[in-house]
Amino acid sequence: MQWTNLSEQTVYENRWFRVNLADVELPDGRHLDHFLIRLRPVAVATVVNAANEVLLLWRHRFITDSWGWELAAGVVEDGEDIEAAAAREMEEETGWRPGPLKPLLTVEPANGLIDARHHLFWSESAEYIGHPEDDFESSRREWIPLKLVPDMVARGEVPAANMAAGLLLLHHMRLADG
């Protein structure tokens, strides 16, 4: 039951994304117009310290008018390495420079509408280099015990699905065996 994208035309474009209209053929031969958003890859990073605390940002999202915990994240610039973008975003948004980053997971948060892949990385060390350059990205930055993550996700305090998935995986990796 595969849908086939026969053609696309851009109806809006800026430096972050394109909105396209696709002519899609369904398996039974019918056609439908389907809007989609073409987005740059997103790079995400955090650190888990020796005390099993994870570095999070508390921020407001005006689109949903909601507050929640998130990881540092942003779009990958043209020609930029994804891992380097994750490190850059963490430094700019938290004031912490990560040690060597390890891939955590790659997810597609809304693949029925958007083609963006979110690449999550983590480190076991970080160096505080000063107040974050992009301090407008969050109200505060805190080290949160990883053991609290499942309950935070269950209460809706980590509303972004990509962030929740990454944090739950880190919790499993670091704490599941003891």
TrEMBL record:
The lineage of its organism: Bacteria, Bacillati, Actinomycetota, Actinomycetes, Kitasatosporales. Residues 38-171 form the Nudix hydrolase domain. One of its GO terms (molecular function) is pyrophosphatase activity. Its cofactor is Mg(2+). Keywords: Hydrolase. This is NUDIX domain-containing protein. It comes from Streptomyces sp. NBC_00003. Pfam families: NUDIX. The keyword Hydrolase applies. One of its GO terms (biological process) is ribose phosphate metabolic process. GO terms for cellular component: cytosol. Belongs to the Nudix hydrolase family. InterPro entries: Nudix_hydrolase, NUDIX_hydrolase-like_dom_sf, NUDIX_hydrolase_CS, NUDIX_hydrolase_dom.
